[in-house]
Amino acid sequence: MSATDPGKGLREAASAYYRSAGRFAWHFARGKLRGDPAYRLILEQGLLAGCSRLLDLGAGQGLLAAWLLAARSCHALGRAGAWPQRWPAPPLLESYTGIEINPKEVHRARQAFAPAAAALVRMLHADILDADYGSPDGIVMLDVLHYNDFHAQEQILGRARAALSPGGALLLRIGDAAGGQAFTLSKALDQGVALLRRRRWLPLHCRTLGNWQALLAELGFSTRTVAVSRGTAFTNTLLIGKAA
């Protein structure tokens, strides 16, 4: 890793999982991990510290699993340049369960993590509305809830709260519907991505940041926010919730 780009080696290590899943999966991983600041922030700010049993809702091809496994390997090397000195130690992942409704993405993930990481990574083809959440100590939802209507959002978050023990962590990325032009751009991009992935137009159900915070408080979460729009034209925010 260079001083100007401390995440380069980590991105390459995470993307390498997808070489066995085909060129599309590999190139997508490289591009997403380079362009999406949320992954770096998760490690740089220790947003999943203490989480060892992770549930990823709307997991796609399991990029978060690859990222955290690569982080553990890079940190364990213990030599200069392998891990940014100012970053905290990554979470010690004992199990990762990803739930994804798109069967092609599930297939790519299963190819990527078999056989080397199959004992740690489980990918399920299911709808997050009715899938079994198990007993995680951390739940991540990146850009997924707004594809569900408001009632379904409340159901999903309620099930997440029920699955987490007191002190468990929820990491939720949302677009602030009060974000003006930047939010409009973000919403248009998400609708375009949904059209490409699901071959149909999906309405988006968005809330203001204040409304998201109020909903999480009603469900028993204390929250704080982390801006995640650095280097982008969007208004995305990470909400980090702790189960009371």
What would a concise description of this structure say?
The protein has 8 helices and 7 strands.
Structure description:
- Strand 4, helix 6 (150-163) and strand 5 (169-175) form a beta-alpha-beta unit.
- This protein has a seven-stranded mixed sheet, sandwiched between helices.
- It contains eight helices and seven strands, in the order αααβαβαββαβααββ.
- It has one domain: 3-Layer(aba) Sandwich (Rossmann fold).
- Helix 1 runs antiparallel to helix 2 and helix 1 (8-15) packs across helix 4.
- It is 40% helix and 18% strand.
- With 244 residues, the protein is of the alpha/beta class.
Please write the CATH class name. Answer: Alpha Beta
Label the structural class: alpha/beta
Q: Could you tell me the CATH topology label.
A: Rossmann fold
On the 0 to 100 scale, the average pLDDT is 89
Largest sheet: 7 strands, mixed
- Give the N-to-C terminal Cα separation: 39 Å
- CATH homologous superfamily placement: Vaccinia Virus protein VP39
Q: Supply the number of helical segments.
A: 8
- H/E element order: HHHEHEHEEHEHHEE
Helicity range of the residues? 40-55%
The CATH architecture comes to: 3-Layer(aba) Sandwich
